[in-house]
Amino acid sequence: MKGLSPLLITAIVLVAGFAACAVQFPNIASTRVIGNLLTDNAFLGIVATGMTFVIISGGIDLSVGSVIGFTTVFVALAIERWGVPPLVAFVAILVLSAAFGAAMGAIIHVFDLPPFIVTLAGMFLARGASFLLSTESVPVTAPIYSTVSDFALRMPGGGRLSAIAIIMLAIVIGGALLLHLTRFGANVYALGGNRATASLMGVAVGKMTVKIYMLSSLFAGIAGIVFSFYTSAGYSLSAVGVELDSIAAVVIGGTLLTGGQGSVIGTFLGVLIQGMIQTYINFDGTLSSWWTKIATGILLFAFIALQQGLVALARRPVAKRVGAAP
Amino acid sequence: MENSLDPAPSLLEVRGISKSFAAVRALQEVDFTLRAGEIHALLGENGAGKSTLIKVITGVFPRDAGLVRLGGEEVAPRSAKAALEAGIATVYQEVNLLPNLSVAQNLFLDRQPMRFGIVREGEMRRRAKVLLADFGLDIDVAAPLGNYSVAIQHVTAIARAVDLSARVLILDEPTASLDRHEVEILFGIMRQLAKRGIGIVFVSHFLDQVYEISDRITVLRNGRLVGERETASLPRLELIRMMLGRELAETTGARTATSDRLPREVCASFQNYGKAGYVAPFNLELRHGEVVGLAGLLGSGRTETARLVFGAERADGGQAMVAGASIRLQSPRDGVRHGFGYCPEERKTDGIVAELTVRENIVLALQAKRGLHRPLSRREQDEIAKRYVKMLDIRPPDPERPVGLLSGGNQQKALLARWLATSPRLLVLDEPTRGIDVGAHAEIIRLIRELCDDGLALLVISSELDEIVTYSDRVIVLRDRTHVEELSGEAIDVTNILGAIAADGAAMQEARA
Ligand SMILES: Nc1ncnc2c1ncn2[C@@H]1O[C@H](COP(=O)(O)OP(=O)(O)OP(=O)(O)O)[C@@H](O)[C@H]1O
Ligand SMILES: [Mg+2]
C-alpha cells in the first residue's frame, strides 16, 4: 500500500539486474551464491532495517556504523580479555547500545536539535570510544563463534543459509511486521508526515523519538554482534561508512528521505541490490571493488530522481481534486 | 462569573489564565466557563487570543498563570495527548491531519482497534466508514488522506475529534472550508453531542453561524475577556461592538450603483476556455475597473476556473486574450508576466513562509516578478510592508515579526498583501475574507471596491453570497463544473444566485446522501 510503486520499481530493478548477471555468469543463479550474498550482507540488512524506521520518521542516524565498530571491539574484549561469558557480553552490549540510541533520541527531542547533528556527534563518540578500548584487531576464539559459523541450513542446490543470514531474515520480517502492523509503526509514519501535527493529534512525539533511535541503535548492536561472528574478530575500524550504505539501501528501497513513506521490504530489496552488484564484481574478477560504490551511487541518484518524479506526479491529481465535491 | 443560580453545572472552568509570547501578552487573566450540554461560541478579532486560549487549555502551550478545572477537578494537561486523555478533544485551527497516512489511520491514530498487539486494519476501516457516514461521506478510507480535497480533510479532522470527545469538544474555525451542506451536517452532530451533555466550544468569524448554533458567547479582545452573554439576548450590533471595541462603519450596505460608470476596457478575455474533466469550456470577459464574482457550491468549479484564468492549470482548448492579442497561458509564470495575480484558497499551505517576516512575505511575489537582478532596496521593502500592514490592519503592526507567529487571520492578511503589492492588472482572489474577522472583513470589501475604482480587474470567489452581491458588477454562477448563469446589474441578488445554484440542488443533495 504505502510506497508501493517505488517498491515495485526496486523489485523490477533487482530481478532484471539479477537476470542480466545470470546471463553473463550462469553460475550466479544458484542457491550457493544467494546464500553467500545473504551472509555477506547480514549486518547491513539488520542496520538498514533500523535505519528505515528512523528515515520514515523524518530523521537520520549516522551513528550506526560506529556502533557496529564499538560492538565488535567490546564483545571481543569482553570475551577474550575480561573473561565474560559470550551471552552475557551480548546482552550487555545490546543494553548499552539501546541506551546510547535512547540518549540520542532524547537529546534530539528535548533540545529540538537536528538528528543529523546529534547522530553525527554520536558517530564520533562511538568510534572514539572503540579506539579507546583497543586500536588493534582482537581475534575471538570462543567456541560459540565456531559453532555459529558452522551452523547452516542446507538449501536445495547446495546453498547454505547461515545462522547470521537467518538472524537477518528474522529481523527484516520482524521489522516489517512492527512497521506495518502495529500502533508503533503507524506512529512512525505519523512523525514523518508532520511532527507538529502528530503531536496535536495526541501522538507522544518525545517518547516515539526516543524509541525510534533506541531501536536503530539496538539493531546496530545486533548487527555488530553479527559482524563479529562474520569476521570472528573485533576491530575499531570495522564497518566504517556502513551508515551510508544503509541509508543508500533504504533510499533505493523506495523510502522517502524526507520521511512519511517507505517500507522495510523495500529496504531489504535495496540491500539485495547492493549485494548483487558486489557479487557481480566478484564474479567478473577484473573490476575493482570500488565499482560497487560507483554503481550504488548511480543507482541512488536514479532512484532519488525517480522519487522526485513520482512525488511530482502524485501532487498533480491532488491539485485537480482540490475542491472536488465529496 | 460564578453564578450559583445557574442550573447547568460548569464543566470546564478557566480562571485567570495569562500567557505571553516574549513581549506579546496574548492572554491576560482570562476567565471562561463552559457548561455541560451547551454550545459556547468564543469570539474576537483576529489576534484576540482565541486559538491561544484553546492551546493553553489543552496544554499545547504552557500557561503563565491561572487554572483550569474540568468537572470541578483541577487539570493541567501538558500535551495534546494528555488533554485528550482527560476528555478534551480539539480540532485546532491549523487542522491539517497527516496526508501521508490513510483516512482510516488519521481517524484512529494512536487509538486503533488492536488484537494481540496488532492493528486490526479491517475493523479500523469498517469503523472509519461508519464514522464518516455520519458526515455524509462515502470515500475509500484506505487511500491516503492527501488524495482528498481540503474540505474532506477538514471533515475527517472534525469526525476524529467528535469521535474522541468524551466531555469537551473544541472546534477552532471548523467551518472555514466547508460548504453550507456540510456545515448543516456538522451543526446537527454538534446538537446531538450537546444533548448528550458534552460541552462544545465553537470559534468562528461567521456570525450567522454563531447565532444559529450557539447558546452562549464569550468575547475576547486584545487578550482580555470582554464578557460572556447569552446568545439569544445579545443583539448583533452589540456583539460587534464587544468584539471591536467600537462601532463598525457601515460598509456591507447597499450595492454601489454601477450603471453610471463608463463602459470599460477589456483586460483579458477567454473564449471556449476549458479543460476536459476539470471545467467545461467557458467564455469570460474581465474588464478594467470591474469585479466579477464567482458563486457556486464547493466543488462547482470556482477554484478550477480561477486556476485556469491565472495559468496555474493548463487549458486543453480555447483561447486566452489580453489587449486583443492571443496569449500563451501555460504556467503561473505566464500569468504573472501578463500582470495576473492569484491569491489562492489554501493560503496557509500554499503561500505562507512561516519563518520569514511579514515584510519578507509581503515583498516575495513583487521581488519574484522584478527578477533577482533588480532587488528591492531595504527602504522600498520597508515602505511597502508598512503601507500594507496599515492598509489591512495587520496586528501586531510589526513588519519584522515572523509570519508564523501571527494569528491565523493576520497571516491571511499578509498573504493578501503579497499579491496586492505586485500591482497586478488582473487579480484573482479565492475566498479573500475567509478566516478574517468582522472588522477586517469590512476593510477588505472596501479595499476590493477601491482597487476596482483604480482600474484593476478583479475575479473574486466567495461562498458568502451577501459579500459577492455587495461588490460584484457581474456574477457568474457555477454548477457541476460548468458556468451556468451570468447575472449583472439589478439581477444580482442573493435570491437569484441561490436560484441558479440550486436549480438542481435536490439532485445534489441526493447524490451526497
Ligand atoms: N507561537 C506564537 N509565538 C508568538 N506569538 C504568538 C504565537 N501564537 C500566537 N501569537 C500571538 O498571540 C496573539 C493571539 O493569537 P491567536 O492565534 O490566539 O489569535 P486568534 O484570536 O486565534 O486570531 P484568528 O482569528 O486570526 O485566528 C497574536 O498577537 C499572535 O501574534
Ligand atoms: Mg485563531
CATH topological fold name of the largest domain in chain B = Rossmann fold
The CATH top-level class label of the largest domain in chain B: Alpha Beta
CATH class of chain A: Mainly Alpha
Structural class of chain B comes to: alpha/beta
CATH topology category name of chain A: ABC transporter involved in vitamin B12 uptake, BtuC
How many separate domains of chain A?
Answer: 1
Please identify the oligomeric state. Answer: heterodimer
Largest interface: A-B, 32 and 54 residues
Give the name of the CATH architecture of the largest domain in chain B: 3-Layer(aba) Sandwich
Runs of chain B in which pLDDT lies below 50 for 5 or more consecutive residues are 1-5, 251-255, 505-513
- Reading the helices and strands of chain A in chain order gives HHHHHHEHEEHHHHEHHH
| Shape label of chain B | globular
Q: How many beta-strand elements of chain A?
A: 4
Strand order within the widest beta sheet of chain A: 1-4
Largest sheet data of chain B: 6 strands, mixed
- Strand content range of chain B: 25-35%
